[in-house]
Amino acid sequence: MRKILVELFGSHLEPTVIYCDNQSCIKLSANLVFHDRSKHIDIRYHHIRDCVQRRIMLLSYIPTEDQDADILTKALIRRKFEYHRGRIGVADNPYLIEREC
Questions:
Q1: Helices of type H across the chain
Q2: How far apart are CA 47 and CA 80, in angstroms?
Q3: Which candidate, 76, 93, 92, places its Cα nearest to that of 84?
Q4: Residue 49: how many CB atoms within 10 A of its CB?
Q5: Largest CB tally within 10 Å, which of 18, 35, 49, 92?
Q6: CA distance 22 to 14
Q7: How far is CA 51 from CA 18, 29, 57, 59, in A?
Q8: For the chain, give me the number of helices (H) and strands (E)?
Q9: Eight-class DSSP state of 19
Q10: What are the CA-CA distances from residue 1 to residues 30, 49, 58, 82 (Å)?
Q11: Residue 92 has what DSSP assignment?
């Protein structure tokens, strides 16, 4: 998407911030010393590290309880579901609420 935006508008974009709740992932992407220990990792995951090194992406830590992407990837209890739903801006549809005839 970044390439498309640059081609369409011809402007330089700020680094894309990716919020991650995995601290070891963030450390692995920032530190090349871990490379010897991470040779078994698939090549597509090394792409993220390259993007971080070239300052195209930035990985930022976010606590697990504040990770809004969980609503799309996990089964959550109702309270957490409603909390994350509100944070991403999804509202109840008043037309879908049961009405009396």
A1: 2-9, 23-30, 43-53, 70-73, 78-87
A2: 32
A3: 76
A4: 21
A5: 49
A6: 23
A7: 11, 9, 6, 10
A8: 5, 2
A9: E
A10: 23, 18, 16, 30
A11: -
Identify the residue with better confidence: 83 or 39. Answer: 83
Contact 87, 46 (CB under 8 A): no
Contacts of 76 (CB under 8 A, 6+ apart): 70, 84
Helix axes 23-30, 43-53, angle to 10 degrees: 70
Mean of pLDDT over the chain: 81
Report field, pTM of the whole predicted structure over 0.85: no
Residue type, 17: V
Q: What are phi and psi of 17, to 5 degrees?
A: -95, 125
Residue whose structure tokens are 């450390």: 27
